[in-house]
Design goal:
Largest interface: A-B, 28 and 32 residues
Shape of chain A: globular
Distance between the termini of chain A: 22 Å
Oligomer: heterodimer
Largest sheet of chain A: 5 strands, mixed
Structural class of chain B: mainly alpha
Strand content of chain B: under 5%
Distance between the termini of chain B: 19 Å
Number of strands of chain A: 23
């Protein structure tokens, strides 16, 4: 099999060639064969997203794997450079706030897409819908009747003691009982299958990078992309607009504003991107004012009423009158306008209680309690350090566990036991003993690995995926794909972009269409 | 349109105009390093810094007026105006600030405009000034002017003529009014009689050919000054910029030609009136200098009125009745 093409999309040309069984065995149990995969190794303890354990390509990845294997290092380099340059020129960045300065960094993007079959994705899709239904019912319950607390499904102290629990939301009528309109759930895959790692219900971010990855990959390998019949994620902004607009009852054409903390926020690019794509206004707290229980924004032609606020500001900073009185990011009186039903805030204040890492352990029970169904997606085994048994187990097995703060995010405030030094473990043990309720622990997962092009070679790296779920008045929409995050450092399990992680495109491929 | 976004467009326009103005002045000045007598060159640097209302990094009083601005210093002076991050009005700083404004305007800004602006910023940030200097002292400022003109073309082609575009243009023309006034004021010194320096002014303002066609091949300082103040067909004249501001403010004003007009519009009308009056009354160059001093003050007031009227107005003023 030879590849002779002079088109810029050289990789895609290879996709049209028949797959050679001999060449298919590019990756042996330890080291792959030739071409792009000449330095690729497979370890049996990690599931590889592209290869079987015997080194043959998975059916869903045949075309892509063949194309990569046939590509020269120069072609791969050109491809990687192309997608990276597109990110650079379009300024697809995140902000890192250091001790002394604020720097703007380009999100590292990898040019090799991760592939999943449609049936694998449909399983995730169903699981996410089920999970979000249960979480919305749970949130309504804890701010109204509290049956799940009375029935002992979740301990009182876990909910009422959670810093994200908002007394102010007690009895507040939330439009259509939808507390969580936008959810980003982190899903990992191990040898045992898919599992939910955590739910992000407050201000989940990353969707713009998902869309940017897709746009960059489409441009870099158009024919290969086209040959795969990949499910499309680009309708996301339009869907977000529709789902948010569906929550308003008083007008057919609501004015939607994206509330951002400002340009120094790490996800500012995303806020601006979503506002632009939705045709919404990108506002800061200082652009809004509440008058007579109505929310207005300051335009060049006077004040205009706002109907929906898609907030990317934490609860604490939303309204200095109701929450933190030193907040300069919020809008005085906003919560009052929300309570009287004159504005929709998405996600609702107080949803953070359900993405607390300790409460996460109870989500399967909540699904059984509220929906009378078995969870479709399983949780990762979690030990609550607030319990004596959980704390003891965690302290005794610190070198094997990942320990996280219950309210932490971004990969900060956690200990990865197998990779931590003796001093780090000692310090963390001290913190655990001082404030055990603030921590949970989980086994160190053997996250699946996918091929990535790093330093001129295709090598395996650990990945997870964050799909985005949108909940409107009548329907739930899930982008068929998600932000696939990659731990770019060899052996690392931390995929957060602020800590050396990057992203890659995720292709959901419909097997029937592909075969046809 | 969101008032803060209008403010960002306005400032973005101002920063681009500022960067281009400095780059044009530098381009002209550095292109003539080779064949300009030392005293004219030194005078040119002094005028340039005076026109930019900046103190030069090398003080003429310490080393003697002319000596301080001779060719060996040109590199340092150009670097100070182009890439010195300590200088708030350096070209790189203006571009950085414009980009910061643009970052907040992504929802309103066409993607092409953003990528063009961002590419230009990355090019200027990463370019090696010494290397460019070796190719020709004016290569870098000329490159900046080219990139900014390319950006203007992309804006022209891609942006709708809505309030976003209007505020961007408004910022450019208000900045142009202030910069051109300062430039003409610096030149309108009675001792500044060298016709070559005046030709340089017309060249920098892209008005040399027009002047020769309309007036004379012989450059008369007073006539050149009047030409750059009152000729409505020269894009860098005060008259042209004032007229542009008037048109933009009329389009922004939702009441559309109501009377009395909003305060910024009234002020722009007043500026236009002042130009006409000066055209007939000023006989001596010193009179023009006084006029330009008053005009600069009026331009600053115009800026304040625009901010107060459209961008940072009291909330009670904006409430629906």
């Amino acid at each position: 099999m030879t590849v002779t093409t002079s088109t810029q999309d050289n990789l895609s040309a290879t996709a049209h060639l028949s797959f050679d069984r001999e060449r298919q065995s590019v990756a042996g149990p330890t080291v792959a064969g030739k071409g792009g995969f000449s330095d690729y190794s497979i370890e049996s303890r990690f599931r590889d997203e592209m290869f079987h354990d015997d080194g043959t390509l998975r059916t869903v990845a045949e075309r892509l794997g063949t194309a990569l294997n046939n590509a020269t290092p120069e072609q791969l380099m050109q491809l990687q450079d192309g997608v990276r340059r597109q990110f650079l020129h379009e300024g697809i960045t995140f902000t890192v706030i250091g001790k002394e300065e604020v720097t703007e960094q380009i999100i590292p993007i990898d040019c090799v897409p991760r592939v999943l079959t449609a049936s694998e994705w449909d399983h995730i899709d169903q699981g996410l819908r089920q999970r979000l239904r249960a979480i919305n019912l749970f949130l309504k319950d804890i701010y109204h009747e509290g049956w799940s607390l009375r029935d002992g499904i979740v301990p009182y102290e876990l909910v009422l003691g959670c810093p994200q629990y908002r007394m102010e939301m007690l009895g507040t009528k939330v439009p259509h009982d939808i507390y969580v309109s936008v959810c980003g759930t982190d899903i990992v895959r191990t040898r045992d299958g898919f599992a939910v790692l955590e739910d992000n219900l407050r201000v989940p971010s990353g969707v713009s990078y998902m869309l940017a990855c897709r746009a960059a990959i489409k441009q870099a390998m158009p024919r290969l992309y086209r040959a795969h019949n990949v499910r499309e994620v680009l309708p996301y902004p339009g869907q977000l607009y529709s789902q948010l607009a569906s929550l308003v009852t008083w007008t057919q054409s609501p004015r939607i504003a994206v509330l951002t903390p400002g340009r120094y926020n790490s996800a500012y690019y995303e806020h601006a991107f979503l506002a632009g794509e939705m045709g919404a206004e990108l506002v800061e707290g200082r652009d809004l004012v509440v008058h007579d229980g109505l929310v207005y924004m300051r335009t060049v032609t006077g004040l205009k009423k706002v109907d929906v606020i898609y907030r990317r500001v934490d609860d604490d900073f939303l309204d200095p009158v109701t929450f933190r009185n030193d907040s300069l990011l919020g809008v005085p009186g906003l919560f009052h306008a929300y309570r009287v039903g004159n504005v929709v805030i998405a996600n609702a204040p107080g949803t953070g209680v359900a993405d607390d890492k300790a409460l996460y352990a109870y989500v399967p029970d909540l699904i059984r309690y509220f929906l009378s169904e078995e969870p479709i997606l399983s949780n990762v085994e979690t030990y609550l350090c607030r319990t004596t048994e959980g704390l003891t187990y965690t302290l005794e097995n610190l070198d094997k566990l990942v320990v996280k703060e219950v309210g932490g995010s971004g990969g900060y405030g956690m200990l990865v036991g197998p990779h931590a030094s003796a001093k780090e473990k000692k310090d963390f043990a001290e913190r655990l003993r001082t404030d055990p309720a603030n921590f949970i622990s989980q086994p160190t997962l053997a996250l699946s690995r996918a091929p990535c092009f790093i330093d001129g070679k295709v090598v395996p790296r650990h990945v997870d995926v964050r799909p985005f779920v949108l909940q409107g008045r009548k329907e739930t929409w899930i982008a068929p794909g998600g932000l696939c995050r990659v731990a770019l450092r060899q052996g690392s399990l931390v995929v957060n972009s602020s800590q050396g992680g990057g992203c890659k495109d995720l292709w959901i491929i419909n097997e029937e269409e592909r075969n046809s | 349109m969101l008032a803060r976004a209008a403010g960002d467009f306005y400032w973005m326009g101002r920063y681009f105009e500022r960067a281009e103005h400095t780059a044009r002045l530098l381009d002209y000045h550095l292109a003539h390093l080779v064949d300009t007598p030392a005293d004219v060159l030194a005078r040119g640097w002094q005028l340039l810094y005076a026109a930019l209302a900046q103190p030069p990094p090398i003080s003429p009083t310490e080393t003697g007026d002319a000596e301080a601005f001779l060719v060996p210093d040109a590199f340092a002076l150009a670097a100070h105006l182009i890439e010195d991050t300590e200088n708030p009005d350096a070209i790189i700083q203006s571009w950085t600030k414009a980009r910061d404004n643009a970052k907040q305007l992504r929802p309103w800004l066409p993607v092409r405009v953003w990528t063009c602006l961002n590419d230009g910023f990355l090019w200027l940030r990463d370019c090696d000034f010494t290397e460019y200097w070796a190719q020709g002292p004016n290569r870098l400022p000329a490159g900046v002017v080219d990139r900014l003109r390319h950006l203007s073309g992309v804006i022209e082609a891609r942006m709708s003529r809505d309030n976003a575009w209007r505020f961007l243009e408004l910022g450019r023309f208000v900045e142009r009014l202030q910069l051109q006034t300062a430039l003409l004021r610096a030149w309108s010194n009675p001792s500044n009689k060298n016709s070559r320096v005046w030709a340089g002014l017309l060249e920098v303002c892209a008005a040399y050919e027009a002047y020769c066609r309309t007036c004379s091949m012989v450059i008369q300082p007073r006539q050149a000054l009047a030409f750059l103040i009152a000729n409505p067909e020269v894009s860098r004249s005060l008259s042209f910029a004032t007229r542009s501001v008037q048109v933009l403010l009329s389009d922004i004003d939702p009441a559309g030609g109501r009377y009395p007009r909003r305060a910024p519009h009234r002020r722009a009308l007043r500026l236009a009136g002042a130009i006409e009056t000066n055209l007939h009354a000023s006989a001596e160059i010193t009179d023009t200098q006084d006029f330009l001093g008053d005009f600069a003050e009026e331009c600053r007031t115009l800026h304040d009125l625009i901010i107060a009227e459209y961008i940072d107005y009291p909330l009670e003023q904006g409430l629906p009745s």
